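Session log. Operator J.P. requested a structure for one protein chain; no other inputs attached. Running the standard single-chain path with C-alpha cell output.
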Amino acid sequence: MKKLNLPLFSILMLLLCCLPIQAIMAGNVPLKEDNPNQPLGCPNTSKAPVRIALDVAINETDITLNFLYPVGAAQVTVENENGEVVYQEAVDTFTTLDAFIDTQSLDGGVYTLKINYGSTNLVGEFEL
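Structure written below.
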C-alpha cells in the first residue's frame, strides 16, 4: 500500500474546506432572457432554452461578471428603481472574460442588471 503524501494531502484538504466559505460570502444574480413580448410567468415554448455564457456574482463591494467564453462586445447596464442608468460599460470579451462593477457608490435599493451581446439580451435584479 502506498503512503499518502502528507503535505499534498494537507493542502488539498485545506482547499476543499475553504471553497464552501467563499461560496457563502458571495451571492449570485440570477439572469433570464429579456423578452418584452412574453407575458410574465409564461414560459416561452417556441424557442430552445438560452445558454447563458456568463456567471454573475455579487458581494459587499462589487458585482463580478465571469464570461464562460468570448461572445464579442457585451453591453453592461445597471438601472435603478426609476429606470435611470447608473452604470454602463462595454466589455470586449475577446480581451477579457471578467468584468467588475463597483457598487460602493450606489445607494441601497433594487437595481436591474442588463447584459446584451449579439442577439442575446439578459436581465437580472439585485438588491443593495
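Operator note: Strands lie at 27-28, 32-33, 54-58, 62-67, 73-79, 85-92, 98-102, 110-117, 120-127.
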